[in-house]
């Protein structure tokens, strides 16, 4: 078939072709980095520097400790560790919101073991509230109670803060934004805007997105940089809103009201949950703190720099999301009472949309690895499994003495595949058992 040349953009013959920063050109550029090759023997008392204190970085530190290896976790969090396990508490009321990860399921036996321990230690518990799918007009279909849904007892962030509470070989440095990695004399030297952060025998990149791409761009780790560059991430808006009175949500036969719902068919909304009933029970007298999360499509349509959201965009997004709530609940237009508190946030690098499907990446020549949810999926479970896998890979490599690095290389060339799941991630076990209980598929009573 011949091409219709008349429809192609006119080219200015005097101008050099502009390639911008297309992914291809950046990948090519990252390939021009020279690979670091550490040949010096590994110290007998090695320390690993972990950049990122979300679920994957924390679990990596925990599992390195289980193998007797020390680590330092660096995290940018001003309010605390946890990354996308964020919980926001607004004083003096207080108002509490999980503003990214909402709950998680468990399918892997290793993750199950960890969650059992957290459960015994009072860090997590099951969420027994009604969760289901909500279609516009207020039609609620509850999900069956199995598989169990877990939440942090006081929210997700406190869970991340306590994961390391019983460790003794893990040092946490926060807030700290590692901005440079430099290999020197058999070690990695980390710094934050010129301020030294210490030196390490191996490093772990436990974060992703633009920040990781920048950090890796001139690190001497071209293979790792290339894999990171291949990752695509969605954007999701989070609207936190507190209401004096309960929202007129649907309830099911036993008078149990909706506490969390995957919203279907509404562009501006993919999830809504009542944090107050989720965390403090249905009898709580606290204000009703709701988290509303947008769809990825809406995030993309309304994408702006997350650090400086124009007020006009913020207004428009908030309005559209509250309108979405009205439609989802089947309420008349403009009848939803205004929240007395609201806060809007954009998760600019929210969830991975593709994955190499390998638990971790490790470059033994550069003594550097990557862990994160995206290596396996888009859930807290995949982040935890990735952290575990990388810790074991590094520990095996260190125990080997580092003499035959090739045996320990993993994930440096894996191709990426698209990821399926909800807009707010995957919930292993939930979808496979998604025979939504039709018997309970009752009309919402608003
Ligand atoms: C809106 C939203 C809703 C979600 N809902 C769910 C859910 O209900 N259930 C579920 O299972 N999953 C959910 N997820 C996904 C889940 O939150 C992630 O899979 C998981 O938290 C990822 O953990 P991580 O360790 O890979 O990365 P992150 O949590 O992103 O951790 C990376 C950390 O590295 C830090 N960092 C970045 N750059 C640097 C640097 N240069 N120096 C130092 N530190 C740095 C960051 O501050 C961050 O703390 C949701 C995600 C979003 C965005």
From TrEMBL:
**What is the protein's species of origin?**
Perilla frutescens var. hirtella (Perilla citriodora)
List where this protein forms a coiled coil. Answer: none
Please give the name of this protein: Oxidoreductase family protein
Q: Which InterPro entries match?
A: FAD/NAD-bd_sf
């Amino acid at each position: 078939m011949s091409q219709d040349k008349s429809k192609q953009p006119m080219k200015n013959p005097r101008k050099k072709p502009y390639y911008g920063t297309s992914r291809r050109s950046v990948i090519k550029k990252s390939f021009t980095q020279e690979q670091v090759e550490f040949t010096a023997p590994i110290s007998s008392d090695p320390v690993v520097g972990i950049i990122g204190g979300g679920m994957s970085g924390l679990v990596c530190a925990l599992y390195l400790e289980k193998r007797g290896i020390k680590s330092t976790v660096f995290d940018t969090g001003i309010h605390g560790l946890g990354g996308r396990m964020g919980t926001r508490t607004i004083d003096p009321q207080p108002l509490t919101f999980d503003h990214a990860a909402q709950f998680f399921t468990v399918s892997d036996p290793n993750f199950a073991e960890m969650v059992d321990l957290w459960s015994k230690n009072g860090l997590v518990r099951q969420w027994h509230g009604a969760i289901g799918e909500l279609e516009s007009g207020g039609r609620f279909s509850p999900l069956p109670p199995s598989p169990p849904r877990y939440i942090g007892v006081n929210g997700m962030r406190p869970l991340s803060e306590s994961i390391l509470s019983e460790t003794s070989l893990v040092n946490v440095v926060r807030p700290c934004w590692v901005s440079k990695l430099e290999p020197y004399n058999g070690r990695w030297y980390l710094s934050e805007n010129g301020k030294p952060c210490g030196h390490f025998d191996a490093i772990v990149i436990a974060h992703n997105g633009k920040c990781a791409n920048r950090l890796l761009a001139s690190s001497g780790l071209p293979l790792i940089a290339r894999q990171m560059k291949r990752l695509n991430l969605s954007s999701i808006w989070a609207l936190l809103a507190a209401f004096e009175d309960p929202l007129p949500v649907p309830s099911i036969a036993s008078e149990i009201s909706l506490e969390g719902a995957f919203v279907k068919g509404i562009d501006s909304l993919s999830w809504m949950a009542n944090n107050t009933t989720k965390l403090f029970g249905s009898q709580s007298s606290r204000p009703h703190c709701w988290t509303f999360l947008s769809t990825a499509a809406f995030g993309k349509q309304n994408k702006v720099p997350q650090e400086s959201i124009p007020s006009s965009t913020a207004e428009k997004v908030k309005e559209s999301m509250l309108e979405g709530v009205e439609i989802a609940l089947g309420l008349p237009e403009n009848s939803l009472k205004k929240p007395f508190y609201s806060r809007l946030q954009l998760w600019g690098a929210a969830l991975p949309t593709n994955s190499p499907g390998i638990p971790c990446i490790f470059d033994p020549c550069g003594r550097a690895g990557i862990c994160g949810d995206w290596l396996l999926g888009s859930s807290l479970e995949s982040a935890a499994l990735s952290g575990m896998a990388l810790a074991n890979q590094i520990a095996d490599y260190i125990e080997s003495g580092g003499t035959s690095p090739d045996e320990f290389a993993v994930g440096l060339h894996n191709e990426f595949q698209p990821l399926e799941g909800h807009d707010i991630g995957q919930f292993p076990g939930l979808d496979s058992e998604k025979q939504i209980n039709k018997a309970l598929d009752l009309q919402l009573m608003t």
